[in-house]
Structure formats: structure tokens, C-alpha cells
Design a protein that fits this description.
Layout (H helix, E strand, L loop, with lengths): L14 H19 L4 H8 L3 H13 L3 E3 L18 E3 L4 E8 L3 E7 L5 E8 L6 H15 L7 E9 L2 E3 L4 E5 L4 E4 L1 H9 L3 E5 H12 L7 E7 L3 E7 L2 E2 L30 H4 L2 H10 L8 H9 L3 H25 L3 E6 H5 L1 H14 L9 E3 L6 H16 L1 H9 L11
Parallel strand pairs: 3-6, 6-10, 11-14, 14-15
Antiparallel strand pairs: 1-2, 3-4, 4-5, 7-8, 8-9, 11-12, 12-13
Helix pairs in contact: 1-2, 1-3, 2-3, 4-5, 6-13, 10-12, 13-14
Length: 415
């Protein structure tokens, strides 16, 4: 009789690795349930009360947790020493983030709960290639110096569209920006003096949803990002998938039957162009809705109720709904999350996406599993910082040690 081979033995962990795994478990339990008593953290994590207490002491010393004595139970007649609840300390540390897009770059500071403390949009002025990075690298030290409330910066996240190798910190391919094999992490680390995490923006937003968003995201989810670049990310059991050699996958070239727009791949009708902001804004200019392909002008037309602008947005919403139906039928996730400007701007457009999704999905017609990303105008700022926060929550002791050992920033010049 055939017997399956035994599973491979787990690689032994060093003492430091075990401490980091335990620290991550405690930190995530407090993030999810805090303010919370140590005894509850022990029950949630399976660690001993003594181990939890040691981790709480270490994480508090590092500025990641804090005690909440004002919430302690007890009073007259209480026997024994009351347990002091612990919570994530959102007041001492911060991460910085960069979302590098086509029209502009978003710079932001986030606290440890993913709340945006500050954000600023930096116009890229139509630049591509190194011309996008050069002024950003020069300006970055001054931006970082403005961290609010005397907080300590412990990392920098940098996200963008396209194929990103987060292990090597390499921007493999971004067609609209003209980037190929760009050592983004190395350049930003030199300019900032901080540990840098680089990732695709759809994966970063999926990670933010797992950390701070809808509970179903921790079971399984698909996240679709629709902007100048169209990207998707998949997560199962709280882990965002990264395929070999780095992309999650490529939904950009899913066929859209009624589109004749030419894609950079040489074919017509790819989702990357049929649903992209570039195509939408160019169509608006061609129809005389705006003077030129421009987000600000087109958004103003939509908000003013221009029926031509409304028609264009609804047409794109239908295209997005069909793409999401296909993704849902292939993956069958617990949750679908959409990041798209106009679905965030007006629920009516999200309803168009949901209606088309329900009509097209063969596997399930329940559109309630489809939600819009909940961060509104802060969505790109959250994406930017989420890469750094994900690394912090995955390996808190390692991340804090890396922040303590970070090298001073040095001027970076691109040829």
C-alpha cells in the first residue's frame, strides 16, 4: 500500500528567532484585542503567562506596547493585585511611507495602528524613469525630519504598481514609469538612513486589510487595485501570496471583450488599459469633458454631475465588476476588496461594480463579499506605510534592532 512521505522536518529555530516569533504573536494578539489583560493574551497565543509577561516587558521597552492602568479592574473589596491591560502604543513610534504613482507620489507618516498622521502629495509632473526618483531622493531627508510629535521613525515603506521583488527590494517592471530592474530599496535606504521595505501596492493594501481591516481578510481575500496600473493580490490564512520570482500574478492582461484599446504588450483589450485611469482620463479629454487628460478636472466633472463623465465611470465600473467576477470564480475567496477612486468617492459606483459582479459570477452571486477599501483619501498613504508595518508586526524584535542599527542618510545621485 502506498504511504505518503512524512512532512519535512521544520527547520530548527535559534533562540532569537523563537523570541521574535513569540513577540510577534503577543503583539498581534494585543493589536487585535487590546486593551487586553496578559492572561487573555496567554490564552489567545498559547504561550505561558510567564512568557507573555517577558514579551510584554520587552515590547514595552521598545515602545511597541504600553500598560493602561486607568483601565485596570479593582476597587473596594477587590482581592489581589489587578492586572494592568496592555495595548499597542500608538504614541511613540511611527513609520514613513512612499506610494510612487504615475501622476504623483504620496508621502506619509503612520502610527502603529495604521492611522495616517500626515500625508503629502508630490506632483511627478509627467516624469518617468530616474527623473521621478531624482527629486524625491533629494527631498526625502527633509520630509522625514518633519515626523510629528517627536516620534521615533522605525522604518520606511515604498510601494508602487507593477512587478516588485520585495525580497531583493527591486522594482522589476513598471511600464508607465519606464522602470526596469531598479534597486529601489538600496536607493531609498541610502537617502533615508532607515530600514526600507519595498512591495507592490496591491499586496501592501492586502496586508493592511489583514492587519487593520475586515476580519474575513484573515481567512482569504483578493484585492484589486485599479489606477494608472491595474494590480491584484491574493491572501490566504493571513498571508499575502508572493509567487516566483516575485509577482503575485498578473491580472493586467485579462481580456476585456468590448475594448479595442492597445496595450503595451501589443494586444488589444487587456484589463490594464481598458480599466486604467490613463484610458479613462484620455476618453474624458477626447469627449470634451476636460481640456486634457487630468484626474482633478475629471473628478470635478463627476462630482458636478456631468452625465458624460458619469457614463464613463459607470462603463469602467462594469468592466471592473466583470474582472472581479472572474477572480472570485477562480479563487473563491471569503472577501473581495476593491481600491478604485470612484467606488471610494460614491457608493453608487460601487453598486454598479457589485451588480455586474453578481450578474457575471458563475460560482456565487452574493455581492456582499465585495467591499471598497475603507481608508478613503488616505488609501495610498496607508499602502505606503503598510509595507513597513507588515515587517514590524511579522518580526518586531528584528525590525526594532534594524531600526537601531540603521546607517545615517547619505546623498544619492542618479546618473
Amino acid at each position: 500500500m502506498f504511504s505518503p512521505p512524512p512532512p519535512p522536518a521544520e527547520k530548527p529555530r535559534s533562540g532569537d528567532e523563537r523570541r521574535d516569533v513569540n513577540a510577534a504573536a503577543v503583539l498581534r494578539a494585543v493589536l487585535d484585542h487590546g486593551p487586553v489583560a496578559r492572561s487573555r493574551v496567554a490564552a489567545l497565543t498559547g504561550l505561558s503567562p510567564a512568557a507573555v509577561s517577558r514579551q510584554v516587558v520587552d515590547l514595552s521597552r521598545l515602545g511597541l506596547l504600553r500598560e493602561r492602568p486607568e483601565l485596570a479592574g479593582g476597587g473596594a473589596g477587590t482581592v489581589g493585585r489587578p492586572q494592568l491591560p496592555v495595548d499597542v502604543d500608538a504614541g511613540r513610534l511611527a513609520v514613513a511611507g512612499l506610494h510612487i504613482g504615475v501622476p504623483y507620489t504620496t508621502f506619509a507618516f503612520l502610527d502603529l495602528r495604521g492611522n495616517v498622521l500626515y500625508r503629502q502629495e508630490l506632483n511627478n509632473r509627467g516624469r518617468t524613469g530616474h527623473a521621478v526618483l531624482r527629486p524625491l531622493l533629494e527631498r526625502l531627508p527633509r520630509l522625514l525630519a518633519a515626523v510629528p510629535d517627536g516620534r521615533t521613525l522605525v522604518g520606511l515603506g515604498a510601494v508602487t504598481g507593477g512587478a516588485v521583488d520585495r525580497e531583493r527590494g527591486l522594482m522589476v517592471r513598471h511600464e508607465p514609469l519606464g522602470w526596469r530592474d531598479l534597486p529601489l530599496r538600496e536607493l531609498l535606504a541610502q537617502a533615508s538612513g532607515l530600514p526600507v521595505q519595498v512591495d507592490n501596492h496591491a499586496r501592501a493594501l492586502a496586508q493592511a486589510e489583514i492587519l487593520f481591516g475586515h476580519p474575513a481578510a484573515r481567512r482569504s481575500m483578493v484585492h484589486l487595485f485599479v489606477g494608472h496600473v491595474v494590480d491584484a493580490a491574493l491572501a490566504v490564512a493571513g498571508t499575502v501570496h508572493v509567487g516566483p520570482p516575485s509577482p503575485t500574478g498578473d491580472v493586467a492582461h485579462l481580456p476585456v471583450p468590448d475594448s479595442d484599446a492597445l496595450c503595451h504588450c501589443g494586444r488589444t483589450g487587456c484589463l490594464a488599459v481598458a480599466a486604467s485611469d490613463t484610458t479613462l482620463f484620455e476618453a474624458a479629454a477626447a469627449e470634451g469633458i476636460t481640456e486634457r487628460p487630468d484626474r482633478t478636472g475629471f473628478t470635478a466633472a463627476v462630482l458636478a454631475g456631468d452625465p458624460r463623465a458619469d457614463k464613463l465611470v459607470r462603463r469602467r465600473a462594469e468592466t471592473v465588476g466583470r474582472a472581479l467576477a472572474l477572480l472570485a470564480d477562480v479563487v473563491n475567496p471569503d472577501l473581495l476588496v476593491l481600491t478604485e477612486t470612484f467606488a471610494l468617492l460614491d457608493k453608487d459606483y460601487l453598486d454598479v461594480v457589485r451588480t455586474e459582479f453578481a450578474l457575471r459570477s458563475h460560482l456565487r452571486r452574493d455581492a456582499d463579499l465585495l467591499i471598497a477599501q475603507q481608508r478613503g483619501a488616505d488609501v495610498l498613504a496607508v499602502a505606503a506605510g503598510a509595507a513597513a508595518l507588515a515587517a514590524l508586526y511579522a518580526r518586531p524584535l528584528h525590525a526594532m534592532a534594524a531600526a537601531a542599527e540603521a546607517a545615517p542618510a547619505v546623498p544619492v545621485r542618479l546618473r
